[in-house]
Design brief:
273 residues; six-stranded mixed β-sheet; alpha/beta; D-Maltodextrin-Binding Protein, domain 2; five-stranded mixed β-sheet; single chain; 2 domains; 42% helix
Length: 273
């Protein structure tokens, strides 16, 4: 069957799907067509399901009742994650009163920061525009994701808060839940699990053929150096990506329990394949 698959124009997603999208890893059950869009666009699309399979922020799962979470393909930080940047040091008290640029209201980074400091004044913008907005003074601070977590100093801004470290300390080392892949419930659990295995095989192929997968991923480097992109990919394509396991599932459930307790998201039915 033909399946539409949405992923982001990010190197870690490209690395994961390298085997599948190049035909190096095949399936007798599926042929895939892929759609590339920014994560917040994919989050919004999933609220009125258009794609069969799509990458979404973990946070978005509270608003997409027609999808089931796949166990493979997740982006989890291991003691690291989104960071808050500014041109000068700011206390949490100051941040609570500041205008902070965020990469989208449905991103996991936004919900994580709310869990950490409470609700705050924010402005949405494309994640790649945030460093410039911070440096120019358009905003007081910026919540950054993707490879900007590594390149912020080159952008002329400073890290003032590490949300990933906070999560690590708060949860006694659970991985930081950031992005996952979901599939439409209408396919049925058996088919969903078959596709999950297909994706898992694609990730494992990339990990076994790192140089080729990295070369493919560099198409989505946004002008960053290979060294930086390689470091970024290794951060977010890890053992929990191959299969979230008990730790990944506990992390997702803890994330939502905390958010529901603080009335940041509605109660919903969480489905994991």
């Amino acid at each position: 069957m033909e399946v539409s698959v949405g992923h982001t124009p990010d190197a870690d997603d490209a690395f994961m799907f390298y085997g599948m999208f190049t035909g190096e890893v095949t399936s007798s059950d599926f042929t895939v067509t892929h759609v590339i869009e920014d994560i917040e666009n994919l989050n919004r699309k999933a609220t009125s399901p258009k794609l069969d399979v799509t990458a979404v922020s973990v946070h978005a799962c509270a608003y997409i009742p027609d999808y089931t979470i796949l166990r493979s393909g997740g982006s989890f930080g291991i003691g690291y994650g989104p960071i808050v940047t500014a041109t000068k040091e700011m206390s949490i008290n100051e941040l609570q009163k500041a205008k902070i640029a965020i990469p989208g209201k449905m991103t996991s980074a936004f919900l994580l920061l709310q869990l950490m400091i409470g609700k705050f004044d924010h402005i949405e913008m494309n994640f790649s525009d945030i460093p410039k907005a911070v440096k120019s003074g358009k905003v007081d601070a910026g919540l950054v994701i993707h490879e900007t977590q590594l390149s912020y100093a080159q952008e002329g801004i400073n890290k003032i808060l590490d949300v990933g470290e906070w999560w690590d300390e708060t949860t006694n080392g659970l991985p930081v839940p950031l992005g996952i892949n979901v599939m439409k419930d209408s396919f049925g659990l058996e088919t969903i699990r078959k596709f999950d295995k297909f994706l898992q095989e694609s990730i494992q192929f990339g990990l076994k053929h790192t140089d080729d997968a990295m070369e493919y991923a560099m198409k989505y480097s946004r002008g960053k150096s290979r060294d930086l992109i390689e470091k970024f990919v290794k951060m977010y394509v890890n053992d929990v990506t191959v299969n979230m396991g008990i730790a990944g599932e506990k992390s997702i459930r803890r994330f939502f329990d905390m958010a529901i307790e603080k009335n940041l998201i509605p109660k919903f039915n969480l489905k994991i394949a």
